[in-house]
Amino acid sequence: DGGITQSPKYLFRKEGQNVTLSCEQNLNHDAMYWYRQDPGQGLRLIYYSQIVNDFQKGDIAEGYSVSREKKESFPLTVTSAQKNPTAFYLCASKSLNTGELFFGEGSRLTVL
Amino acid sequence: AQSVTQLGSHVSVSEGALVLLRCNYSSSVPPYLFWYVQYPNQGLQLLLKYTSAATLVKGINGFEAEFKKSETSFHLTKPSAHMSDAAEYFCAVSGGNYGQNFVFGPGTRLSVLP
């Protein structure tokens, strides 16, 4: 079945370590997105990519980095510069046919 | 620019009662509007969407929403709540299929009481 796969589901890291969250889609969508979700704050856009080898900062890009070398993949790196990285991270892709976002199951990062 | 407001961060209803979750939007272009549902520790799942066709939109699990341009609203309703409806609900607006922006509201947590 087509969909979006995020891994790992749960991740624990020490302060000062970079971590990379994986996002893979087989929906043949051009656009992909990373959101951060904190309790009571809804979804905040970190980065998005409209096409391979191109991406733009969202509202809270500081302390994060991304790459888009392949259409199917949009990994997110949470760097040590991110001051409060503990959160639930959601990856999504967008259908140009219907305009809707499709989401992965999320990755919960806890920094100890 | 686009924005979404959801009145009520937490709504409680009794099982079998009407569910009404409110969403108001602002958009400088004809909007596409969406309702998503999220269960704990999961991603978001599309409930229904409005994309400039019929103003009354029916979705999954018995939910529906009505687009009212004059009120800039897109409220979500369900005639009879079920325990399994307890979840977080997000309203979202975008500028169409090719719009880059996809703006979410802050969410409303629905509790269903037995």
Commentary on this structure:
The complex is a heterodimer of chains A (112) and B (114). With 112 residues, chain A is an all-beta fold. Chain A contains no helices and 11 strands. Chain B has 114 residues and is mainly beta. Chain B is built from no helices and 12 strands. In chain B, strands 2, 5, 6, 10, 11 and 12 form a 6-stranded mixed beta sheet that branches. The termini of chain B are far apart. The model of chain B has no long low-confidence stretch (mean pLDDT 92). Classes of the chains: A mainly beta (112), B mainly beta (114). At the A-B interface, strand 5, strand 9 and strand 10 of A face strand 5, strand 6 and strand 10 of B.
At a glance:
Chain A has 112 residues and is mainly beta. Chain A has no helices and eleven strands.
Write the layout of secondary structure elements.
The complex is a heterodimer of chains A (112) and B (114).
Chain A (H helix, E strand, L loop, with lengths): L3 E4 L2 E4 L5 E7 L5 E7 L5 E9 L2 E4 L6 E3 L9 E3 L8 E8 L6 E3 L3 E5 L1
Parallel strand pairs in A: 2-11
Antiparallel strand pairs in A: 1-3, 3-8, 4-5, 4-9, 5-6, 7-8, 9-10, 9-11
Chain B lengths: L1 E4 L4 E5 L4 E3 L2 E4 L4 E7 L5 E7 L5 E3 L5 E5 L4 E6 L8 E8 L7 E3 L3 E6 L1
Parallel strand pairs in B: 2-12
Antiparallel strand pairs in B: 1-4, 3-9, 5-6, 5-10, 7-8, 8-9, 10-11, 10-12
